[in-house]
């Protein structure tokens, strides 16, 4: 190969994280762990879980995918995906489509210092019973912890899910 062509090859540099995403860049990557769920109308259960947060260079958005499985046999349980749009003022917008057909539009706040994200549903679509969902994520000593609360048309806001995940 001609030496002149080699010197014209584009230099590879690390991907650029959008400034809006930078405060939440600690989320980026794959997290795996276990959780527990329950609600007044269902039996309590345990599950394995994997969450992946991704970022396309130069874009002000974080991609989100999540899947869970039965700990006893590995059978798939639930999955969801969406996008997180952090804003420079500490607010965040999140859209999530769940495998059961439910769609969430959430808004909330994040704190870079506390490594904390708090979300509350603005809209829960395609849901005959679910009326409200709140999610709280926090990084504590390198472990991503979250809890989800849910309200239905007959039950007020109650704990539904909680999990702890470690980065792979």
UniProtKB/TrEMBL annotation:
Sorted alphabetically, which Pfam families does this protein's record hold? THAP4_heme-bd
> Which CDD domains does the entry link to?
lipocalin_heme-bd-THAP4-like
Spell out the InterPro entries in the cross-references.
Answer: Calycin, Nitrobindin, THAP4-like_heme-bd
THAP4-like heme-binding domain location is 21-167
Chemical reaction(s) catalysed: peroxynitrite = nitrate
Q: What is this protein called?
A: THAP4-like heme-binding domain-containing protein
| Organism the protein comes from | Sphenostylis stenocarpa
């Amino acid at each position: 190969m001609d030496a002149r062509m080699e010197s014209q090859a584009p230099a590879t540099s690390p991907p650029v994280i959008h400034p809006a995403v930078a405060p939440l860049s600690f989320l980026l990557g794959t997290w795996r762990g276990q959780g527990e769920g329950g609600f007044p109308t269902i039996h309590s259960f345990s599950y394995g879980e994997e969450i992946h947060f991704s970022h396309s260079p130069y874009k002000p958005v974080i991609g989100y995918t999540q899947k869970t499985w039965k700990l006893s046999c590995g059978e798939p349980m639930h999955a969801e995906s969406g996008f997180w749009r952090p804003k420079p003022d500490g607010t965040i917008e999140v859209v999530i489509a769940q495998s059961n057909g439910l769609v969430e539009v959430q808004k909330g706040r994040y704190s870079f210092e506390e490594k904390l994200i708090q979300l509350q549903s603005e809209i829960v679509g395609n849901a005959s019973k679910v009326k409200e969902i709140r999610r709280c994520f926090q990084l504590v000593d390198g472990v991503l912890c979250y809890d989800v609360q849910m309200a239905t048309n007959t039950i007020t806001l109650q704990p539904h899910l909680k999990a702890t995940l470690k980065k792979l």
